[in-house]
Task: inverse folding
């Protein structure tokens, strides 16, 4: 098996649907980006497998949540 990890801003449900990820990790660590156009169109994800809410996280804890 092989895996690919993609890291990018996907501010709308439509963009996320087109990408069609097998697993979504939402880095919910800021309330606003520095880009107003992104802030204006941002939609909270309907479904996520893992949410990270701050940068004081332990990567091993996140990996355990993903594996579950």
Result:
């Amino acid at each position: 098996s092989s895996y690919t990890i993609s890291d990018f801003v996907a501010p709308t449900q439509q963009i996320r649907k087109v990408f069609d990820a097998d697993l979504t990790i939402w880095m919910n660590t800021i309330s606003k980006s520095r880009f107003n156009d992104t802030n204006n169109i941002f939609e909270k994800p309907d479904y996520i497998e893992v949410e990270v809410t701050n940068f004081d996280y332990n990567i091993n804890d996140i990996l355990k949540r993903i594996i579950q």
Notes: The first helix runs from residue 13 to 19. The chain is about 30% helix and 10% strand.
